[in-house]
């Protein structure tokens, strides 16, 4: 503030001198005899200049002061939690006023201090710091009249130095003498630390820095080495974040299988969510059932057995548990059962035992012995509800779905591909549009124009939706008729881990990539997908579309299986990552509400049924 005041006054004085000189020269140039007399006669002409010169001086002072204020505020924002460091940075920075007036103002500051306190700083120091007994300086009777922070800081430093007493230079730490014990070294260190604390001025930071150094040394830390406690906190936070990503969401629907994979008359074993289930279809009405793939008798895999129709009145017939045929499948009142290949035990869709060939009829428990799970078949997928079976159907979350799968004007091809990595990175890759221009550059990516435009993101209870546009390029000359300058894209991410990417090309062509990323285990997953299109409805195009989808997912597989997020202490995301960031936040809300289940641990397999 002092420099700003001096610069402002100097600017006003310079303007006044220049204006007076120019006006005097102007009068002299008019040929007036005796220009001093002319100046006296025209003195009124100088008054407006004096006014505007003062305006210029005050304006200059205010402008420089405002610049100083903003500079100090920027320093405070940079160090919000360290006032001492912020003060040191503010004093040591090269400001505009210091550059314009590069002189020391110690004399002026001491004069101002003397005018306000009635004594000089040196007198206060000598009076307050006798060699034998240091004494603190008494505060001034009147409050300081200066509101400027720089002057207040100077006065505070002077008072702190006076209160601390005489200070000797801090030398190098003393070396331990030969023969000293570890206890002697600790005592010497404590004494030296106490001496440093007494000698260090308040606010200088040397005492706290020395104490921190001693604490680090006491824990065996070398200079520059991370504190394990701080590092452990960061690691714990990151580990918790990664563990929550790997977790499974309960009370949601998962695509357990493709409908085309469940062949008539045969059970299908599926690895999912750290366990294994068996799917089979009732051969009378086509209803799909799901049980744990482990016979409760000795744990044999039911998926290795066969289907049979068991009727109540024929339960005592050993042949009733043989592989079914079309004739006995439609038997009235019969149950389509999956039969264990080990001892022939037959279980219906509810997990109840319907036949034991080696036992007398009816001499077995009537309650369900195998866990059964709700399943629905929609859009070419078999959906498994993993959660509390007691939850009413109307209160369960919706099946992640795209209605075009059931629209007769659209045509879909299906497939699945496994990944040897956790499901989370595979799922996020499906809603990541920034990677297509590079990872799929030889197909539909466009590395020459990779920018994503006009992205907006919305969300509701169960999904996140992003809309944006990209620059695409035709896959081949055959697709030139679909080329457009900008391709509108809608990316929808649905809980627990499904995505639908809709693109609109020229000629009214629309395609939807519907992908369900299903966890198999902590380090394995599978993408069950459907590529849906509103053109080329003939089946001859299906093979081309399916092969194109497998090519794209194969390129994803090579890269995604190499991702190592556990090696990062933090992941940085930018604007194009908005869909992933928004979905992470949505999923975390459900995890925080208790819907997250950690990946499977080493324990006896008890099926998918969560502990109640």
UniProtKB/TrEMBL annotation:
Family annotation (SUPFAM superfamilies): Bet v1-like, ISP domain
Any one Gene Ontology cellular component term annotated for this protein: cytoplasm
Any GO MF annotation of the entry: metal ion binding
Keyword Iron-sulfur: yes
Iron-sulfur as UniProt keyword: yes
Signal peptide feature range: none
Highest taxon listed in the record's lineage: Eukaryota
Basic and acidic residues: compositionally biased ranges: 182-199
Keywords: 2Fe-2S, Iron, Iron-sulfur, Metal-binding, Oxidoreductase
Region described as Disordered: 165-225
Sequence ranges assigned to domain Rieske in this UniProt record: 254-384
Bias type Low complexity, positions: 165-181
Record's protein name: Rieske domain-containing protein
Organism listed in the record: Tetradesmus obliquus
């Amino acid at each position: 503030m002092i420099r700003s005041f001096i610069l402002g006054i100097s600017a006003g004085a310079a303007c006044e001198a220049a204006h007076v000189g120019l006006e005097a020269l102007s009068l002299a140039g008019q040929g007036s005899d005796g220009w001093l007399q002319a100046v006296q006669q025209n003195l009124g002409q100088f008054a407006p200049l004096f006014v505007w010169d003062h305006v210029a001086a005050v304006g200059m002072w205010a402008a420089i002061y405002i610049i100083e204020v903003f500079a100090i505020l920027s320093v405070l924002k940079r160090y919000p939690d360290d006032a001492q460091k912020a003060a040191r940075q503010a004093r040591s920075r090269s400001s505009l006023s210091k550059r314009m007036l590069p002189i020391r103002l110690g004399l002026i500051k001491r004069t101002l201090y003397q005018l306000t306190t009635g004594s000089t700083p040196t007198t206060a120091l000598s009076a307050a710091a006798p060699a034998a007994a240091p004494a603190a300086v008494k505060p001034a009777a009147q409050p300081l009249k200066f509101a400027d922070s720089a002057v207040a800081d100077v006065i505070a430093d002077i008072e702190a130095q006076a209160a601390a007493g005489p200070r000797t230079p801090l030398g190098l730490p003393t070396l331990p003498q030969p023969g000293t014990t570890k206890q002697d070294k600790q005592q010497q260190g404590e004494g030296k630390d106490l001496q440093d604390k007494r000698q260090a001025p308040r606010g200088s930071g040397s005492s706290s820095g020395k104490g921190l150094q001693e604490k680090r040394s006491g824990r065996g830390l070398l200079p520059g080495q991370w504190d394990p406690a701080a590092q452990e906190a960061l690691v714990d936070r990151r580990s918790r974040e990664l563990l929550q990503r790997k977790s499974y969401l309960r009370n949601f629907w998962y695509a357990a299988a493709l409908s085309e994979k469940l062949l008539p008359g045969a059970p299908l074993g599926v690895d999912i969510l750290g366990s294994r289930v068996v799917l089979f279809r009732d051969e009378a009405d086509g209803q799909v059932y799901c049980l744990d793939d482990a016979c409760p008798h000795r744990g044999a895999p039911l998926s290795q057995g066969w289907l049979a129709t068991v009727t109540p009145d024929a339960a005592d017939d050993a042949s009733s548990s043989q592989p079914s045929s079309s004739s006995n499948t439609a038997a009235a009142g019969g149950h389509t059962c999956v039969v264990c290949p080990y001892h022939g035990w037959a279980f219906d869709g509810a997990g109840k035992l319907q036949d034991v060939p080696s036992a007398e009829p009816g001499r077995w428990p009537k309650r369900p012995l195998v866990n059964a799970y709700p399943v629905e078949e929609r859009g070419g997928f078999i959906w498994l509800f993993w959660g509390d079976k007691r939850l009413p159907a109307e209160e369960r979350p919706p099946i992640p779905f795209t209605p075009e799968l059931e629209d007769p004007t659209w045509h879909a091809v299906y497939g699945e591909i496994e990944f040897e990595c956790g499901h989370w990175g595979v799922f996020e890759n499906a809603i990541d549009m920034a990677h297509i221009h590079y990872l799929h550059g030889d197909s539909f990516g466009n590395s020459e124009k990779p920018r994503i435009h006009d992205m907006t993101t919305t969300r509701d209870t169960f999904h996140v939706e992003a809309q944006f546009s990209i620059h695409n390029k035709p896959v081949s000359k055959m697709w030139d008729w679909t080329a457009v300058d900008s391709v509108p894209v809608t990316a929808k991410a649905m809980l627990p881990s499904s995505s639908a990417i809709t693109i609109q090309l020229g000629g009214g062509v629309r395609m939807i990539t519907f992908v369900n990323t299903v966890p198999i285990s902590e380090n394995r997953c599978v993408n069950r997908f459907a590529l849906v299109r509103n053109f080329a409805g003939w089946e001859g195009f299906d093979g081309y579309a399916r092969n194109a989808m497998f090519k794209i997912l194969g390129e994803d597989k090579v890269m995604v299986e190499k991702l190592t997020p556990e090696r990062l202490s933090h992941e940085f995301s930018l604007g194009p990552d908005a869909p992933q960031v928004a979905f992470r936040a949505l999923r975390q809300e459900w995890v925080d509400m208790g819907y997250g289940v950690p990946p499977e641990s080493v324990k006896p397999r008890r099926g998918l049924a969560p502990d109640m």
